[in-house]
## 1
Amino acid sequence: MHALAPFRGLTPEYKLMLFAAFVFNLGFYMLIPLLSHYLAENLLLSATLIGVVMGVRSFCQQGLFLVGGVLADKLGVKRLIIGGCFLRAVGFLLFLWADHIVVLFLAAFLTGFAGALFTPAAQAYFAHAQGISKANMFALVGVARNAGELLGPVCGLLLISMSFGLLCGVAAFPFLCFGIAFIYYLPTAKKSQKSAGLNTRDLIKTVLGNRAFLQLCAVMIGYFMLINQISFAMPIFLGQLDMPLHSVTWLLSVCALISILVQLPITALTERINKDALFISAGLTLMGSGFLVMLFEVQSQWQLYLQLGLLALFFSVATAMSLPLIMKQIANSAPPGTVSTHYGFFYLFAGFGLIIGSALAGYALDLEQQVPGLIWYLFALIGGVSALAHLYLSSPNKEEKLGRVDLS
């Protein structure tokens, strides 16, 4: 019960935003994980075309995060959150006409661009919550999003069994509703939360001149090289073992469930000890080394599920330990009025990490027969090197040289 105290202290608008975070992930994970299957099995599109469509969605989101961040600082986060909601609703509805290639690509573009608009703005909005620490605020956000990720695929399977059109409509409806609700119930950002007359060039210059922030982003490329591997490398590896598809679903569900259970207690512990750099580095190390449980040769299906369970535990604890503190450090590193731009720039680095990590993981998996276990050693190395780099940048002497960022 004590762990829920941060939630009870939130103002109504932040409770609304948390509920929106849950519903948004619920809607997203209802549709997007099942979209590729629908395009292949029902519309008989080629794997190459499907890959391009999904790549367009990811690129429009990752590649345009900086645009969304700059616009949020210039126009206010409320407008960007509302605009992103409406665009995501339109994008999801357009998948109803996915048999028309032009409409399919337009839907993919709008779905990705919507995320680029509201994600940096929403993160900045959460960073300005009053009466709660940034770490606790982002921990609550993580719980809400993980709950949506846990329930989304289950709801999606039920809806798509009835109709793909029904699935698209149900996934889009919450974004439309919250877009309208935010117009009336989401307060306009205070002046201190907007850029004080800064033009786009000045905003970008501020970010590029923030050396400590850029170094944090560079180190966190390693974090994002690892964060995507549960949903990228593990399905491929399990497929190489001829394991059923539900083993992948089981792993993802266990990760989400553990994250929901441990996030608030772990954040409460990090708040009490107040050693952010230590916990972030420990999280990076655990995230990478946790994959070493997969080195043991699989003798039975039960053993595999045990290994996957341990991996889910290590990975979820590592994420719960590090992600809220990373989000906190970004907010602390940004001068007033530039928080959204800093988050947008950070997500650009995240995109590089996702691409590099996927490429390295794919190459290592291709060599699995020649060099067994290479991929797990690679992940452990990435986690360890990133952790050491973060500890170095967070050392007292280094902090004095770099200036502003609170790396406590």
Note: The longest helix spans residues 301-333.
## 2
Amino acid sequence: MTATHTRTAKPTTAPSDRKTTYREAMREAMREAMRTDERVFLMGEDVGRYGGCFGVSLGLLEEFGPERVRDAPLSESAFVGAGIGAALADMRPIVEIMTVNFSLLALDQILNNAATLLHMSGGQLPVPIVIRMTTGAGRQLAAQHSHSLEGWYAHIPGLRVLAPATLTDARYMLAPALADPDPVLIFEHGSLYNVSGDLPADAGPVDIDRAALRRPGTDVSLITYGGSLPKALAAADDLETDGVSAEVVDLRTLRPLDDVTIGDSVARTHRAVVIDEGWRTGSLAAEISARLTEQHFYDLDAPVERVCSAEVPIPYARRLEEAALPQVDGIVTAARRAVGGPVPTGADEPARQPVTEGAD
């Protein structure tokens, strides 16, 4: 008699979350894109041998070589223009600009070429370029390296403007951006590069048409993006101790804005606080406030509050820089004001201060 042996199937183990940083997630997104599509290449200042000004492209030169990881001269207009030309030739360039302030040197290329060629050619000349840049303050880099100008770019038709604030978005926003036939600008807040955490094992493609609900709530909507998302979540924690349930909406895509997700949140909570590291006058926060007034006037039980940066060049000195930027205490104060709760004596009220213009 022959013995019968039964093979016992080994239990399958679900993939586990893995530890990473925002910087590493961005790097892995570029590595995957370059492995998947030979048309994808990276170009910018110090992206090759130096590994990127913020270390995002470290190691890519060794893997893909100088043809696909190109160090560019210090001329933003020249290398952004070269990237636009490559996109017109059916390549898929990723162009890195060191900081948003320096992108102004390429504004002519971005506004007058990248954003307009599809329209001016009657749909014949798409420009599928991705332009990445660091934005934001909080790192004592002074005024010429610290401003948040993404709201300016969100003003321009023909562009898509993204602001990844989480590890998942940093890892998975790039693929749909490269697949978009329009120019895509990705704003990476400098304070997020060192943020570490677990990248969910089941994380996957990101819908770059939709905002994300990061925390549910019932009393007030905190609407923000990028580097201000951690502050909004911290403010929501503080408000919870006072019995205020704050919902946190991460815009993710600044152009086009997801009016539906924003509006649905305010329809639930009936109050809104918009947190925007840009300057208050003519800001993205002003646009969102206007849209809520136009589309959800009868849902609002209080005026829309805005927490923005002080209208000064971002200072170098740490305490002055901190004072100029939206902070957790200011968000909590604005939210308390919106829900009609107690506001600490002497608390800042940026949404109530009149703007004083100098005499002509």
Note: The CA atoms of residues 2 and 8 lie 19 Å apart.
## 3
Amino acid sequence: MSDAVVVGVDGSASGLNAVAVAAREAHLRAAPLRIVHACDRPPPFLPPGAEPWPPLDPVLEPMVQGVLARAEERAYEAAPDIDVFRSVVTGEPLEVLEVESRSAALAVVGGRGQSAFAGLLLGSTAVQLAAHGRCPLMVVRGRPAPDGPVLLAVDGSPAGEAAVEFALTEAALRDVPLVALHVWNTWSARAQESPGDPPLAVVSDVDHLRDVEQRLLDETVARHRPNRPNPPQVAVERRLVRSRIRPALIDASREAQLMVVGARGRGGFTGLLLGSVGQALLHHAHCPVTVVRGKE
């Protein structure tokens, strides 16, 4: 289902909360909502022309359909006017959601699970999904500020360009301001051309570096507009903060209703598809976090 919002459910309270958030996202986009429950693993080999996932075990079907029915009810409570479709897929949750993300506008998951999606955010699974999914991934966690802005973590990297457009679009859809936050410190400078921070980075002109980082923030935001027909004007606050990056972003998330971050920013190692900042936010932010991958 192209351009749908996809949400993974498992019957947990966290999963139902994710359904409500996903339903509101679908409403904002005038898009359908697809509720997906994953069960068990697919066989290692499939004959030519076979369905990608085998049928559901008949013993489990009544329980799973109950999970989906409760999720659908929650979706209509949150957004009565949307189209809701539900699906049971036999397969490993990460693989199922990765496949679903290939045709989705947005994938949504809860912060904790209890069955098929149990542990989704308690280890490498969430990192893998955020890094390898084909659409933005929204992780529903924390206690978002209902009237707060959309918070964008600006890093100025080519990989982060897609996150800027996504954040502007989210702010436009929600009719709230965007806070574009760029956190810098003396390690922001590059003393040599190499991946990651060099062993020693000595900055003698802090004022010059601050000007450079301010220009990076200004230019990054100025290059983008909301990805909507006749996009509305979005009030943008450009906030430059000298601090440690991860703690500053986590603290700023207290005032936001949504945080948006790119999958990998400046200093990221080649092949590392989700940087340490994104990982920290997935686990510690005080509001939902959306990880946006750049174009391949």
Note: The helical segments are 13-29, 61-78, 93-101, 124-132, 161-174, 206-222, 245-252, 276-284.
## 4
Amino acid sequence: MPSTTRTTPRRGLLAAALPLLIGALASCGYGSDATKEEPADKKAPAAADGKKLSASEVRIGYFPNLTHATALIGVQDGLIQKELGATTLKPQTFNAGPSEIEALNGGSLDIGFIGPSPSINAYVKSKGKNLRIVSGSASGGVKLVVNPDKIKTLDDLKGKKIATPQKGNTQDVALLNWISEKGWKVDPESGKGDVSVVRTDNKVTPDAFKSGSIDGAWVPEPTASKLVSQGGSVLLDETTLWPDKKFVITNIIVSQKFLAEHPDVVEAVLKGTVKTNEWINANPDKAKESANAALKSLSGKALDAKVIDPAWPSIAITNDPLAATLKTQSEWAVKAGLIKQPDLAGIYDLTLLNKVLKATGQPEVSDAGLGVK
């Protein structure tokens, strides 16, 4: 499928895997401009291109993670706000997909950066009524890191304890599928079997690895590089399991209500994310510094160079949602017995994204047949 990702020698295009996927955008174009002068306190705000926008504010959620670099940099450096003009960007950070989805469903969040698994789960549970995926954001950045004293080859995983972030999340599904492909058996609910799949929060995983209570972990960055800094060894990069070494790890979702009422604001946000991604891919070293500065601002602590330096180039920043890989991830979850066959028709609406890409001379991206009709 066409991709808008621009790579540099330091940044391989990896596809990101994680929590299940999201829904797509439903309408396009700017709202009608007011035909009469409104009171100053109620006047519609103007975007960067001078057009008036239909909302005074937009609430955007994301994680303080490297795989959410588009949001980290786009918010911190004002690239998204610039496209919104007088519409105020109100950022919110979350630590997990379920809490972000809850905020979106509860009406306290309009747009979010999130992984595929929570997106898919939320879309299916709402019978396709709560969100749509409107753009991609990142790919790759997931690795199997092991204790090299205990595990030297992939076959050595049998009988070992391997951590994933959460039952049914993107990395958990990928590991269960890999185990199945090896011909080994694991109960998807308990994680017990030929390999013990230990569901462990990414914040806890480094300590668990250091103490020896787990033998390895199938995790996203920067957790993977943190384990390497503790003496771990990368045994497998998940990108090697995917065609073209691409798979979705972060998408941009939007509340269907907000999309229907404020398509112009969503379009302005996408203009900002597309420009942010273009800058990131053209300036990888500066972008790494900016992302780390944002992490320090949000968490109070920047990532150590020995963690961020190997982690950063393994994440590919892209506008392409890599929809075909989301479909594959959902099939893996079904195969593992974690979910029933989902109906993902309409989870994507890439109308506004493709409009923005066309205007900037970039190729359109595909919804893999899962877009709104």
Note: The longest strand covers residues 131-140.
